[in-house]
Design brief:
This protein has 16 helices and eleven strands. It has 343 residues and is an alpha/beta fold. It folds into two domains: 172 residues, P-loop containing nucleotide triphosphate hydrolases (Rossmann fold), CATH 3.40.50.300; 102 residues, Magnesium chelatase subunit I, C-Terminal domain (Helicase, Ruva Protein, domain 3, Orthogonal Bundle), CATH 1.10.8. It is globular and about 70 Å long. The protein starts with 9 loop residues before the first helix and ends with a helix. Keywords: ATP-binding, Nucleotide-binding. It holds the Pfam family AAA_lid_2. InterPro entries: ATPase_AAA-3 (IPR011703), CbbQ/NirQ/NorQ/GpvN (IPR050764), ChlI/MoxR_AAA_lid (IPR041628), P-loop_NTPase (IPR027417). This is MoxR-like ATPase. It comes from Insolitispirillum peregrinum.
Length: 343
């Protein structure tokens, strides 16, 4: 499928002020993103919210974790995103016996032509633009933590040497619910590295019917690239240059800070929440709101964006107390209360 390339002059784009955003660039990028959204929707049927939030996470330059029971097209969504966005992708199936070196790579001792031995680094699957960490919570916490530096700094350190990762670099992890057997909770430090936690629910009857007809025939339609890696980098730069109004900034601060039990004026938060979101949540929410505005063709985010994205941004950055869980309190109810704090 043909696509229009966007300017990717990193130095020039970085120096632009928010008011220098060209309307024609915004329109061209919005059209590309809408085409990408439509193509993804043909492969992942009945999950419009999930597709929207996934594109928002990538436009914001972040990582995401998809949570849902098996069979809800989590793996298919990640593979389709990689193809449509034109990114080099690799897949790692996380299992209990997976080791950090299986993800990052390792050094091997080799004999040279002159008979001397030396170490050579063999890059692991993390050296790609889109890493699919399939069923990430089936690996041990030690292996899960191997992704921390890669996700935060875009590089890995092996045997005292630092190796940069390709740009853009995104980790798209899939996860089964923790109540299922054979899973390990992700460490809080790693969870905080994910910009968003996106939940995938069962499709409705009409969508499931459409899915049956589209996926059980002799052949399925091939998915073609719509964007390139350069287009995605240009879009991420545009997101960071997008202006944000004072009312939106205050709404973000209210939502995040009111989620902290020690600072919250809300009785339910003080009673039911064990720990709340840190400053990285505010940063993530700001970027995600800008990305949602860009995806919808708007030049600036609104308070509606804050309300819509509060749950996926905060869901993995908060925890209920034991007493609240015993009383049957659900985190989604708490998140609904917080989203209303946006005004």
């Amino acid at each position: 499928m043909p696509h229009s390339s966007l300017s990717t002059d990193g130095d020039r784009n970085t120096d632009l002020a928010p008011e220098d955003l060209a309307p024609e660039d915004l329109e061209r990028l919005t059209a590309l993103l809408q085409t990408a959204h439509d193509v993804i929707s043909t492969a992942v049927i009945g999950q419009q919210r999930v597709i929207d939030e996934s594109l928002i996470a990538l436009l914001a330059g972040g990582h995401m974790v998809l949570v849902g029971v098996p069979g809800l097209a989590k793996t298919r969504l990640v593979h389709t995103l990689g193809t449509v966005l034109g990114l080099t992708d690799k897949r790692v199936q996380f299992t209990p016996d997976l080791m950090p070196a299986d993800i990052l790579g390792s050094e091997v001792l080799e004999d040279g032509p002159d008979g001397r031995r030396s170490f050579r680094f063999l890059p692991g699957p993390v050296f790609c633009q889109l890493l699919m960490a399939d069923e990430i919570n089936r690996a041990s916490p030690r292996t899960q933590s191997a992704l921390l530096q890669a996700m935060q700094e875009g590089m890995v350190s092996i045997a005292g040497q630092t190796y940069p990762l390709p740009r853009p670099f995104h980790v798209l992890a899939t996860q089964n619910p923790l109540e299922q057997e054979g899973t390990y909770p992700l460490p809080e430090a790693q969870l905080d590295r994910f910009l968003m936690q996106i939940t995938i629910d069962y499709p409705d009857r009409a969508a499931e019917r459409q899915m049956l007809l589209a996926t059980t025939g002799i052949a399925e339609a091939a998915i073609q690239p719509v964007l390139t890696a350069a287009d995605l980098l240009a879009a991420q730069q545009m997101v960071r240059r997008m202006p944000v109004g004072e009312s939106v900034i205050e709404a973000i601060l209210s939502v995040v800070r009111h989620g902290r039990p020690e600072d919250s004026p809300l009785p339910d938060i003080r009673t039911h929440v064990a720990w709340g979101p840190g400053p990285r949540a505010s940063q993530a929410l700001m970027l995600a709101c800008r990305a949602r505005a860009l995806l919808q063709g708007r030049p600036a985010p609104s308070i509606d964006d804050v309300r819509a994205l509060a749950a996926p941004i905060l869901r993995h950055r908060m925890a209920l107390t034991f007493a609240a869980r015993a009383e049957g309190v659900h985190l989604d109810d708490v998140l609904t209360t917080l989203a209303a704090e946006a005004g």
